[in-house]
From TrEMBL:
Entry annotated with the keyword Transcription: no
Keyword vocabulary terms for this entry: NAD, Oxidoreductase
Family, similarity comment: Belongs to the iron-containing alcohol dehydrogenase family.
Upper classification of the organism: Bacteria, Bacillati, Bacillota, Clostridia, Eubacteriales
Domain Alcohol dehydrogenase iron-type/glycerol dehydrogenase GldA span(s) in chain numbering: 9-177
Keyword Oxidoreductase: yes
Domain of life: Bacteria
Organism in which the protein naturally occurs: Acetobacterium malicum
Ranges of residues in domain Fe-containing alcohol dehydrogenase-like C-terminal: 189-380
Stored Pfam families: ADH_Fe_C (PF25137), Fe-ADH (PF00465)
Name the record gives this protein: Iron-containing alcohol dehydrogenase
Amino acid sequence: MNSFSFKIPQEIICGVDSIEKLPGLLAKQGLKKAMVISGPHLNKMGVVAKITDILAQAGLAFDSFTETEANPSVETVDKATKAFANSGADCIIALGGGSPMDVAKAVGVLAKFGGSIGDYEGADKVPGAIVPLIAIPTTAGTGSEVTAFAVITDRSRNYKLTVFSYELLPAFAVLDPTLVMTTPEKTAAACGIDALVHAIEAYLSKAASPFSDAMAEKALALIGANIRLFVADRTNPEAAAAMLYGSMFAGIAFAWARLGNVHAMAHPLGGYFDVPHGVANAVLLPTVLEFNALADTGRYQTIYDAIKGGAGEAVFTPQTLVAEIGSLTTALGIPQTLAEVGVTAEMIPAMAVDAMKSGNILVNPRATTLIQIEDLYRQAL
């Protein structure tokens, strides 16, 4: 068994209408003015106003930055950092899925320590505590509210750079199921599979530990039993809560165990072709699972049983899980090939080089070469 360590440095508040506790969380830290970082869709839907109305009713000052895009860019981070500095805010509220949270984490670094986000690319380059950050997820998928990563697109390189530091962990995460109950069906499906992939890759990772396994197994149980129900009816309160909490547990699992080839390969798909992250993961997952089957130690059946609700097969092989994942993503309406989402073959060599730069390759259960990554892309195409 690997040596391992872990810590739980956050306070996580869960439950219906838990966003009402937001003023108390600010008061607990002596904070006076918040910058809400979110996206245009959530602003248009009135979700941002839900948060700012709560702040206003409590007599708290705030500003908003709602220009975060999918696969957020270095330029957006710079713009948001400038807006934060001009606002005089002393904390950040990240509202949304992974994109607003990634931007908020990056702003928290730059507002405190200066420079460009590229200066902090890699592991453990953030020198200390960032601007106080409260994360409020509005999707059940990324788990970003409990992870130590920020992924930002450097469009000059068609590359998604990753900043990894436990300093990025939000001080508080507020998980309110009512906020995910208006998620569009396609978004719910893609985000739900993203959370499932987080749990699977953390569970299979070479860096897995008893702690991360416990988190991953709970995530698999919650997501496996509820992803179909949630995509079918996002207003189902039990399914919404289960998916939101499952996503959180999966996030904790991969914060400590890392991921694998699926995520290493998904990031270049976002950088070169702007493929939504959850969709990229979903398309790649069956191909990578088949490749990794050579290294399976019996965990594939645990994953399969979680997805099938314990309905184990009389004769199980790794291909049984691969086929089940394909059936699940098909049922959820997710594309099955990279060609369906606009990926073309000529960029595969460049994407493979970028994928090999990811630390996730190193903890993938099967050792992987550049040529094998190229081949996996072609299989998924």
